[in-house]
Amino acid sequence: MDMNNEELPKDKIEQAVFDALKSEPRFELPANFADRVVAMVDAKVKQKEAQMDRWWLAAGIISILGAFIYAYASVEFKPEVGVFTFFSGYGGLVIFGLVFVIALHLVDKLLLKKSQESG
């Protein structure tokens, strides 16, 4: 083994590494670091909750539709009483009304979401 002037003995290298590891690194976290971490965790929790809410909503809608279909099939519903006689003649109008109200709700929700994000 050739020992050049630039090479250090192994024990001096180990000592230098251990000395460097004993001292703490010199850096400081920003003042709002903890707030940002909490905000990120909170955002992820809210996102998971919103996703779970959407699944429950979908399950509820599917269950309600299934219950209506089952009830309609098992009871043999006939629209011959009261207001149902009106609906029987204007089925297309009723469907249009439902679709229109749902569309208005969705547009309103989208517009409110955009205005809340910008404001």
Brief summary:
The chain is mainly α and 119 residues long. It has helices spanning 10-22, 33-75, 84-89, 91-118. The mean pLDDT is 83.
Write the topology of this structure:
Layout: H1 10-22, H2 33-75, H3 84-89, H4 91-118
Explain how this protein is built.
The structure is a single chain. The chain has 119 residues and is mostly helical. The protein is built from 4 helices and no strands. The chain folds into 2 domains: 29-77; 79-119. The model has no long low-confidence stretch (mean pLDDT 83). Helices cover 76% and strands 0% of the residues. The longest helix is centred in the middle third of the chain and has 43 residues, at 33-75. The protein has helices at residues 10-22, 33-75, 84-89, 91-118.
Largest sheet: none
* Class derived from helix and strand content: mainly alpha
Number of DSSP helices? 4
Low-confidence segments, ≥5 residues, pLDDT <50? Answer: none
Distance between the amino and carboxyl termini? 72 Å
> Which sequence of SSEs, written as H and E, runs from N to C?
HHHH
Average of the residue pLDDT scores: 83
Radius of gyration: 34 Å
Strand content: under 5%
Number of DSSP strand runs: 0
Q: What is the total domain count? A: 2
Helix % is: over 70%
Shape: elongated
